[in-house]
């Protein structure tokens, strides 16, 4: 009996050891869009943040899954009484993935580069109020603003504000070197990006040892890859019509949350006929939002009437200003000098909300006499011709940056809205720290762009992801465009 008991204990111990050895510590995450390059500080493509935010690159502050802003590479800060000087204390022992130390000089380099006259940072306006950045000592940075900015700590959490090093900046687009819990390993363009756990990470080590981001743009292929269990997670699943099938399958879990993604039919406000507010209003009145949500997103999405997330406490429901009314749309077109309608372009990037939604919108516009000639473009082409080149009449895109109504204060932004009154309102908002006053100003801003019918406001994009049942720690909501894997693990 004693021998049998010893054998049983030995067998159980061996099984435990084997189980530990086989514990899964790698993951394959699929997404629809591939980054055009790997520098989050010099491009507008959210796909860069989807892969690298928090995983590889970190900022002084960072977003959490619930949308809160917490300390990042800065462990603490002090704000002067007049609200213009921020003194950041950096965490000790932080190194970049190449082994070099992250210190105050890197913060100075990052912020000065972002705000420089020749900066190519897509969100350069985030840094406009900075007048100086000084390294007080290796662990202390003093940032001086020209006026108080109630958004400053929030702005520093954006992917555009992550800390980079001068030593690695020349190769950053192909070889990103950050301070995060994962380090970059390889990029097979057109297929995947591989990361691995950073053994020298300053914070809580990642549970996962190896991460593969795989890029699958076609919705049919996305469905097949998940069903075949070729991928463990599909972040931003592009075929919402398949979600009920996954919900009924015990192998999978479906995560449905909210995003910061205001999905809009953008209009080029400086190009005829969209330089005419009546034409823009006619376009807005020709759109049946719910039909787009039902037809393109299979019911997933919240109608919006302005560029603001409905889950934000300061949100104002302005959908009533642009209720679907084809006859009103035709009348507005006639008043604008287009009784027979007109012809324009409609550029559609790859996401399903754009491609599927674009077909529906083109049909709706045709009903009032507007011929929207569809051109499907890849993401890099959209960034080059539409976002940078401003060569478009209409386009559909979801703005996934957090609380980004401030983009309407930039007359050079791709939809080219130039309203000095709105710009002054944003300046006042940035200077205001009182929460109640800020909410009032944000409400005013929402109404102003709705009144000007700057764009056709469609719906707030839902965060839809599918994962294998054993995956835990994924974000359900998307307060920024990130697939943060730093807290993800497999259930035992």
What does this structure look like?
There is one protein chain. The chain has helices at residues 2-21, 46-52, 104-115, 152-155, 219-227, 243-247, 277-286, 289-297, 326-335, 352-366, 379-388, 420-431, 435-451, and strands at 26-31, 61-63, 69-71, 74-79, 85-90, 130-137, 140-145, 182-188, 192-197, 210-215, 233-234, 252-267, 302-303, 342-348, 370-376, 394-399, 456-468, 471-472, 489-490. The protein is of the alpha+beta class and 492 residues long. It has three domains: 26-31 and 175-257 and 463-490, D-Maltodextrin-Binding Protein, domain 2 (3-Layer(aba) Sandwich), CATH 3.40.190.10; 58-165, Dipeptide-binding Protein, Domain 1 (Dipeptide-binding Protein, domain 1, Alpha-Beta Complex), CATH 3.90.76; 258-461, Dipeptide-binding Protein, Domain 3 (Dipeptide-binding Protein, domain 3), CATH 3.10.105. Helix 7 runs antiparallel to helix 9 (326-335), helix 8 crosses helix 10 (352-366) and helix 12 (420-431) runs antiparallel to helix 13 (435-451). Residues 1-21 have low confidence and may be disordered.
